[in-house]
Prior knowledge:
By secondary structure, this protein is of the alpha+beta class. About 50% of the residues lie in helices and about 15% in strands. The model has no long low-confidence stretch (mean pLDDT about 95).
Amino acid sequence: MGAWAHMYDCWFEVDPVPKLLEQVEHDDDQEAWKELGWRLVLEHDLVSPASFAALPRLVRLAPRSAEARALAGEILERAAGHHGCDDLLTDCADAIAEFREVLDRHLRSRPADFLVSLRALLAVEEEYHWAAVLGDFEDDFYPLTCPHCGVEVRIAIGNYGRYSATQDWNLGDVERRDLRPTPAEELTGTGRWMFEMAVHAGQEVLADGIAHLFGRAECPLCASVFNVADEYTSTNRPIMR
């Protein structure tokens, strides 16, 4: 990892991040965490050299700090983006491996920040598209294109229902079709892993949402049936360089 003098943050400054890291390491100051967050991660998936330079120190704090876990996870969610810091990311390999172990232990303790930590672990496992969108399934929407007829389909998984629909400018979601969740014993791969993590932690709503997310949807226009997660992944999973 290079000298901090060359590690500018998202605001193109080099001095604040090292000072803020020292502050949160010695005093769990919420204002310092807040400033550190917007210096290391901006909207529109922007990170900076300082983001990856800070990652090992954030990982060292992660076992005892929810803020460190969340911020390290947000940085890694953007690791597949066009940040121009591939060499710095490569230098973080040991820290990322350590972070994986920290998150795995933490998630098995049924923590209050389960969803945030699960998203961080998804980023560590390079499941960036799920790390970026996985919610609590109270108000979640996934825009897709029907793979058979090409119509835009809106997938809703929340308190208001679990369905596929098309959208009308005035009426909202119309032509609703109930989603078909995948039974637990039929889940495979990432879906099964996410589901089992949620069940183990007692996250029943999250587990049910994952079963629907990795289930099947009916196109309201052509009535064809497709796998929701497969279609979302094919459109949104970043192409790794």
